């Protein structure tokens, strides 16, 4: 590893860990609810939606490979949208990353860990305890403790953080492989599947329904993170080769794992057992291995989710750091220690994450984040057409595979998902709007106060 640079392995680990986490271990519980409540309770349809989600993410990965290697800076959508559209749009994206994007994902991972740890701890994690003037559930206390612990780990620099990330991700993949294979070795051969995975009479109609598009929000949240490497683009070794390899390779690996993992879950537990539950892994583990071993696996699941939170703690502060570099008002969060770590950005992210744990629910976080993050990814992918007009062939070292069809597929699928979700649950769309709009106002307020022009040097090129 170059000094203060993430290796290809660490970068791949960051992408995979960002993707594999709360979403895949929790989304199924909200997909198997009755159709009239927004669910898609059909085994074939559920597997199909996970495959569709992977294909959409892969189309995005192909496009981001060209965007990231052309613009060549850490910061992800904050940098790209500033350059391609207007600094206010980029700032709104960075604002979302700062206040809810990564912090919300960290908070939801912490809440999931708290939930998953219940069988291992042998306690009711919903029980409340008085702490620092708050009545907090054990679940929230666990979440806050892990946020603080992992944030402190990553204050030690990229070398330590990258190593921790690689180990945690390898552990998580091993756990998923166990659950993908376990039903074939543990369940009796003559025992019927808990749910049919073959097409049914209703599969086709469900696939073309608004409920399918609404359920896709959960799936795309589970896939969010396929673009994680672009947030640390300036901190990876040999970015021209590493970024496309990590974006595309990580997305393919995770898509395969997701489809097989959900097939495994649905083979073991009935829809009724999983409906509305956040800790699907616990339900399946207890059914496969019994109470004693199930409790062990709940502890393992909790530990595996550490890598998701760890990956977010790596990527998120790089966006905040860029905001601090571009705006004098936020310059404090750009300060690094001797290891090249943006210490104040990490601490600020930890603080916001803890606030979200205290005052938000798991479902609210997931759905609002899924829509908001998809919106900015959509704008970035649309930006590929701007890049093709502005930059010469020599300035674009990596080309989008399947252009223009792959970006068009991403744009149409993501637009359909957002539109359908807006019809199904308009309040969640308003939550996203209320989160985005203040960022645009803050940008113009800072500009009026004559702060340094955002991305001044970058935008002049």
Structure description:
The chain is mostly helical and 461 residues long. The protein has one domain (8-459): Up-down Bundle (Amino acid/polyamine transporter I). The protein is built from 19 helices and two strands. It has a two-stranded antiparallel ribbon. Strand 1 and strand 2 (134-137) form a beta hairpin.
Question: What is the percentage of strand-forming residues?
Answer: under 5%
User: Counting H and I runs of at least 4 residues, what is the number of helices?
Assistant: 19
* Major sheet summary line: 2 strands, antiparallel
Q: Provide the CATH superfamily.
A: Amino acid/polyamine transporter I
Judging from the principal axes of the Cα atoms, what is the shape?
globular
Strand order of the largest sheet: 1-2
* Rounded Rg: 21 Å
Low-confidence stretches: 456-461
CATH top level assignment? Mainly Alpha
Termini separation comes to: 30 Å
Can you tell me the CATH topology?
Amino acid/polyamine transporter I
- Helices and strands, in order, run as HHHHHHHEEHHHHHHHHHHHH
Which percent range fits the helix content?
over 70%
Q: What's the number of structural domains?
A: 1
State the CATH architecture: Up-down Bundle
| Class of secondary structure makeup | mainly alpha
* Number of DSSP-assigned strands: 2
